[in-house]
Design a protein that fits this description.
Helix content: 40-55%
Strand order of the largest sheet: 8-21-20-19-9-16-18-17
Shape: elongated
Radius of gyration: 34 Å
C-alpha cells in the first residue's frame, strides 16, 4: 500500500501515508504484494460458525424498554393503587384521574417510539461502512458483517471497529484516547494490537480481526459510549430533584390526611376514602415527566426531518445553553471542494516541471483530501514517476513530504505545506503569501528538501520552489447562520489550522463580527487563565494544533462558557470530545461522527440554528409548564396540611381536581410545551421554577381554604358540603386560570384563545345540568359564589404582584 500523505494545512485529515524508511532513494525495497484477505468460502464458513461481529449497535431503547420506562414509575405506582381503590368505593367520575394517567403513559410511549424510529433510520444513513479486503478486492461492508479473520483497511479518520492485529502499516498512527485517556497518537507497526474504539490519525494500513462480537470488550465499551443515552441533562436532573422533594412532602402529608379523614372526622367510609384520595392525587406532578419526554421526543423527530442525527437526547438542550461556538473553517464555513487558482513558480523554477511534481505527489494518494484533490484535478500524474518514500501530514507539523523517482535516475525529496512554517521570516515568497492570504486565498508551498524525510526537522533548509494558490468555496448558508448566532448573542470563534490572516479574510467575507481580530495560535499563552483572556478578546485563530483546540475549549469552559465545537476532520476529535456539545458534519471522518453528540447528515451548517431553536423550545416551554404543575403540587400539599390542622372534611373529590387539572394544567401544558419559543436557555432550572411555584401555590391554597371556611360558616345543614365544595372549586379554578394566563405570556392569538377556551369549558360545566351532576358542582345562591370570585380576584392580584417582586429581587 504505497500511499502518499495528505497536504491539508489545517483542515480535515484524510488520506493514508507511508513513512520514509530511511533507505537511499535509489535502493528502494521491492514492493510486497498485499494480503488478499479471506475468500468468500472462508467468510461463509466463519458466518456458519457464528464468528460474526454481531454486537448490536443500538441507536435507542427497545420498544419493551420504552414501555417499561414509561409504565413502571414511582408515581404511576402511587396513582395506580389509588385508582384501583377508587374503582371499588366511588362513582366512575371519581376515577377519571386513572384514565388520564393511562392516556398520558400511552402518549409518552408512542412519542418515544416515533423518536426511536427516526433515530434508527438516521443512524443507518449515517453509519460508516469499513473497507474489508476479501478475495483480494476491497469492498465496503456493514460493521455487523465483519467476521473473525477479516482484513480491514484503514486510513486517517477511520474508526477501529473490532479488535485486531496490524498486518500492514504505512506510517500508521492511532489515537487511543477514547480508551486510555492518552491524547498522543501511538505509532503502529505490523504485529501490534489495535483496539476497537480507537481511530487513525495519520498513515494507513490494514489489520486482521482477532476478536469480534461480544468477545471484543472494547467493542462493547464503544457500543455503550455511542448509544443515544439520556446522559446528564440539567432539565432532567432538575425534575428528578423536584420529584424527590415532592415525595418527601407527600408521604407525611398523605398519612396525616388519611388519619384525619378516616379516624378523626368519623366520616362515611366511602366518602372519606374518596376525599382522602382527592387530596393525595393532585400532589403528584405526574404529567411533568411525560411532557418532558414528549418534548424531547418531538424535538428529535423535528430535527430528524432536517437530517440532523441527535446521538444523545440532551444535546438538544445543551446546544440551546451554548454561549460560545467554536467553528473549524474547513468543511464548516467553506465547502469541502477547492480550486487551484494559480501555480506561481519561485526562483526561476519551470512551471511545467512543477506541475509534474505536484501531479506525482497527488497520484500517490488513493484517498486525497480537498486541497490535494484540487491539485490532482489541475495537475495530471506524469508517466514513469513513482513514490519511494513519504512523510505523513501532521496537524502539528503543518506539512507532508515525499521522495520521488522521476524515472530518469533522478531522485528528489519534496515537501508540501504551510508557507509560514516552511519559509524563513522576511522572505519575498512569504510576503507574497501574506498578500494572497489577505484575499482569503489558501496557499501551499512546494519546496525541495535539503535532506531525507527521516531527520528530526525535514523542513530545515528546504528550497522554496512554487506557491500553489487555492480558492476556497464558501458555504452559501454560512453567512446567515453566523448572523443568527450574532442575533442570539452566541459568540463565534473560528479555530483553524490554516493561516490566521486567510481565515480572517474568509470570515470577513461571511460577515462575522470581529473577523479582523486574528491571532496566530503559535503565540498563544500556555497558562489557562491567560489563554481564556486571549480567546475572549479575539475571534479568529489560525495555525491551531489539535491539542491547542482541546486546550482552547477547556479554557473557555473554565471561564464559565458553555462551548459547542463543530468539525469534520480527525484533527477536531479531541476538541469535539471535550466540548459541551460536539457537532460533526455527516461527510466528516468516522472518528468525528463517533464522538459528536450531533451529526449534520446533510452537511449543512444552516441546520444548527434549527437545533438551537429546538433546544430553546424544549427548555423554555418545560420551565413554563413545570411552574403550572408545581403550583398545583404546592397548593395540594398546603391544603391537605390546613385540613389536617383544622380537622375538617377535605373539600374536594377526585373528580373536582381532575377537572381543574385538565383545564388549567393538562390540556394547556400540552400546547404550551410544544409551542415555538426563542428565549435563550437559562441555568438553575429548579430555582427558576420553585421561586414562582412556592408563592403561587401558597396563595392559591390560602385563597381556596379561605373560601372553603367562609362557605362552611355561610351554609348550614347536613347537605351543605357540596355547596361548600363548589364555592372552593370556583376560587381554585379562577386562581389557577390566572396562573395559566401569566404563564402563557407573551400573548398571541392562540394563547389568548387557549386560556379563553379553558375558561369557557369550565362555564359549560357550571351551566349544563348533567355536567353539574357528573362533577358534583352546583353553585348555591349568589352571595357565596360572588364571594368566591372576589377572593380569587384578590389572590390573582397578589400572585401578580409577588411574581413581579420575585423577578426584581430574586434574580437567578
Amino acid at each position: 500500500m504505497t500511499q502518499w500523505g495528505q497536504v491539508d494545512t489545517g483542515g480535515s485529515d484524510s488520506g493514508n501515508s507511508r513513512i520514509d524508511t530511511g533507505a537511499e532513494p535509489d535502493a528502494a525495497p521491492p514492493a510486497v504484494p498485499p494480503e488478499p484477505g479471506l475468500s468468500s468460502a472462508e467468510v461463509a464458513a466463519a458466518v456458519a460458525r457464528g464468528e460474526v461481529n454481531d454486537v448490536p449497535v443500538r441507536s435507542s431503547r427497545s420498544l419493551a424498554e420504552i414501555a417499561r420506562a414509561n409504565i413502571f414509575t414511582r408515581f404511576n405506582a402511587i396513582i395506580g393503587v389509588l385508582w384501583v381503590i377508587m374503582l371499588f368505593v366511588a362513582p366512575i367520575q371519581d376515577s377519571l384521574f386513572g384514565f388520564v394517567i393511562v392516556a398520558n403513559t400511552g402518549i409518552g410511549i408512542f412519542q418515544e417510539w416515533r423518536a426511536k424510529r427516526t433515530l434508527d433510520g438516521l443512524a443507518v444513513i449515517g453509519e460508516a461502512k469499513p473497507t474489508v479486503r476479501r478475495d483480494g478486492r476491497p469492498g465496503e461492508v456493514s460493521t455487523s458483517e465483519i467476521v473473525l479473520g477479516d482484513l480491514i483497511e484503514i486510513g486517517p479518520g477511520d474508526k477501529i471497529v473490532v479488535d485486531g492485529e496490524v498486518r500492514e502499516a504505512d506510517g500508521l498512527e492511532v489515537d487511543e484516547s477514547l480508551l486510555t485517556g492518552e491524547a498522543d497518537p501511538v505509532v503502529k507497526r505490523p504485529g501490534d494490537e489495535v483496539m476497537s474504539g480507537s481511530f487513525v490519525t495519520a498513515g494507513g494500513g490494514a489489520f486482521r480481526a482477532t476478536k469480534v462480537g461480544r468477545e471484543a470488550y472494547a467493542a462493547q465499551l464503544a457500543e455503550e459510549a455511542s448509544r443515544f443515552t439520556l446522559v446528564h441533562s440539567e432539565l432532567r436532573s432538575g425534575i428528578s430533584t423536584i420529584l424527590k422533594y415532592v415525595t418527601w412532602m407527600m408521604v407525611p402529608t398523605a398519612i396525616g390526611l388519611v388519619v384525619s379523614q378516616l379516624v378523626v372526622r368519623d366520616n362515611d367510609f366511602k366518602n372519606a376514602v374518596a376525599r382522602t384520595v382527592g387530596g393525595i392525587v393532585p400532589m403528584v406532578p405526574e404529567g411533568l415527566v411525560l411532557l418532558t419526554s414528549v418534548a424531547f421526543a418531538i424535538g428529535v423527530i423535528r430535527l430528524g426531518r432536517k437530517q440532523c442525527l441527535v446521538q444523545e437526547l440532551p444535546a438538544i438542550e445543551g446546544l440551546a445553553r451554548v454561549d460560545t461556538v467554536c467553528l473549524d473553517k474547513t468543511g464548516t464555513l467553506t465547502e469541502g471542494g477547492m480550486d487551484v487558482q494559480a501555480i506561481r513558480p519561485l526562483g526561476g523554477a519551470d512551471e511545467a516541471y512543477v506541475r509534474r511534481v505536484l501531479g506525482a505527489l497527488g497520484a500517490g494518494d488513493p484517498r486525497p483530501n480537498a486541497s490535494l484533490q484540487a491539485v490532482i484535478d489541475a495537475c495530471p500524474a506524469p508517466e514513469g514517476w513513482r513514490t519511494t518514500g513519504t512523510l505523513p501530514f501532521s496537524s502539528a507539523r503543518k506539512y507532508s513530504g515525499a521522495s520521488l523517482d522521476e524515472g530518469d535516475a533522478t531522485h528528489r525529496t519534496w515537501l508540501l505545506g504551510a508557507p509560514d512554517v516552511l519559509l524563513r521570516p522576511g522572505t519575498e515568497a512569504l510576503a507574497e503569501t501574506d498578500a494572497l492570504n489577505e484575499q482569503g486565498l489558501r496557499v501551499l508551498l512546494l519546496s525541495r528538501a535539503a535532506g531525507g524525510l527521516d531527520g528530526p526537522d525535514p523542513g530545515a533548509g528546504a528550497e522554496p520552489t512554487a506557491l500553489v494558490v487555492l480558492e476556497q468555496r464558501l458555504r452559501p448558508d454560512a453567512a446567515d447562520t453566523l448572523r443568527y448566532f450574532e442575533d442570539q448573542h452566541v459568540a463565534a470563534k473560528v479555530i483553524s489550522g490554516d493561516n490566521a490572516v486567510s481565515v480572517g479574510a474568509v470570515a470577513g467575507k461571511l460577515g462575522l463580527p470581529g473577523a479582523e481580530r486574528t491571532y496566530d495560535a503559535r503565540k498563544l499563552p500556555k497558562e489557562p487563565e491567560a489563554l481564556a483572556d486571549t480567546l475572549d478578546e479575539n475571534t479568529v485563530f489560525g495555525r491551531v494544533t489539535p491539542q491547542q483546540k482541546r486546550d482552547m475549549v477547556g479554557a473557555l469552559q473554565a471561564h464559565g462558557h458553555t462551548v459547542a465545537m463543530t468539525g469534520d476532520g480527525v484533527n477536531d476529535v479531541l476538541a469535539l470530545k471535550d466540548a459541551d456539545i460536539g457537532v460533526s458534519m455527516g461527510s466528516g471522518s468516522e472518528a468525528t461522527r463517533a464522538v459528536a453528540q450531533i451529526v449534520l447528515l446533510n452537511n449543512s451548517f444552516s441546520t444548527l440554528p434549527s437545533v438551537v431553536a429546538e433546544g430553546r423550545r424544549v427548555i423554555g416551554n418545560i420551565t413554563r409548564v413545570a411552574t403550572l404543575f408545581l403550583v398545583k403540587t404546592v397548593y395540594s400539599v398546603l391544603l391537605a396540611i390546613l385540613v389536617v390542622l383544622s380537622q375538617t372534611e377535605y373539600p374536594f373529590l377526585p373528580r373536582h381536581l381532575t377537572l381543574l387539572s385538565t383545564l388549567t394544567i393538562g390540556v394547556p401544558a400540552f400546547f404550551l410545551a410544544l409551542a415555538p419559543n426563542k428565549e435563550r436557555a437559562q441555568p438553575h432550572f429548579v430555582k427558576r421554577v420553585m421561586r414562582y411555584a412556592i408563592p403561587g401555590g401558597v396563595i392559591a391554597a390560602l385563597a381556596t381554604f379561605t373560601t372553603y371556611m367562609t362557605a362552611r360558616a355561610y351554609y348550614t345543614g347536613p347537605d351543605s358540603l357540596p355547596a361548600e365544595t363548589s364555592a372552593a372549586t370556583l376560587t381554585l379554578f379562577l386562581v389557577s386560570l390566572w396562573v395559566l394566563a401569566i404563564i402563557a405570556r407573551p400573548y398571541t392569538w392562540w394563547r389568548v384563545g387557549l386560556v379563553a377556551t379553558m375558561a369557557g369549558a369550565f362555564l359549560v360545566v357550571l351551566a349544563v345540568p348533567w355536567l353539574q351532576d357528573f362533577f358534583a358542582l352546583r353553585l348555591v345562591g349568589s352571595v357565596m359564589p360572588w364571594a368566591a370570585v372576589g377572593i380569587a380576584v384578590i389572590a390573582a392580584a397578589l400572585i401578580e404582584v409577588v411574581w413581579r417582586l420575585v423577578d426584581r429581587r430574586l434574580p437567578v
